[in-house]
Amino acid sequence: MKTRTRIAVITAAGIVTVGAFAGTFALASNSPTMFGPGPGPGPGAMTMPRGGPRDGGCLAIPGIADPSGTLTEAQRSGLAANAEEEKLAHDLYAEFANRYDVRIFDRIAASETSHLEAVRTLLSRYGITDPTADQAPGHFTTPAVQATYDRLLAQGAASQDAALQVGKTVETTDISLLRESLNSLTAPDVQRVYGNLLTASQHHLAAFDRWSSR
C-alpha cells in the first residue's frame, strides 16, 4: 500500500485529493450473499437481485462471515473515511430520487444503506469510531466530505442529466480508489467487503451509463 494517504474530493469541475484518506475505500454492492465466506462462486459470490443490475438495484445483508485480520493505522483511518463516503453516496442518490422520477436513484440509494451497514460492522469489529453516527442526511463530520457533498448536490440539482453525471463521477472515483486499496490489504473480512463492493460499483456505473444514453 502506498504510504501517502488521501481522501477523494469530487467537485463540479472534476476530482482532486485532499486530507488523509487511508486508501481503504468502499462503495456499492449488489448481493444478498455478498459477505459470505469463500472466494469465487458459491456462498461468498455476488448474486444479482431480481431484475439484475440494469437499474442499479442492489440488496445486501451486512453480516460478514470472513475472519478479521490486521489493519494498519492508515487502513483503519480509511475504513472510517469509507463510512462517510458510503453515506455521501447514499445521501446524494436519495436526494436525487426525491427530485427526479427515475428509479435508478431509489435503487442505488437503497443499496448504499446496506453498504454503510456493512462498513459499520467492520468499524465495530475493529474498534474504530464511526464518523457517521448520529449524522443527519446531508451532514458529515469531515469538512472536506461536507464540501464535496454540497458541490455535488448543487451540480446534480441543475438537471436530471447532471444528476446522472454525478452518479457516474462518484462511481468512477470509487472504482479507482477500491482497486488501489485492495493492493496491499490482507484482512480477509475487509478484503471480502471491498472486493464485492468494487464489483457492485462497476455495476452501478454501467447502470448510470445506460440511463445517461436514453
TrEMBL record:
Keywords: Signal. The keyword Signal applies. Residues 83-210 form the DUF2202 domain. CDD domains: Ferritin_like_AB2 (cd01048). Pfam families: DUF2202. InterPro entries: DUF2202, Ferritin-like, Ferritin-like_SF. Residues 1-22 form the signal peptide. It comes from the Bacteria. This is DUF2202 domain-containing protein.
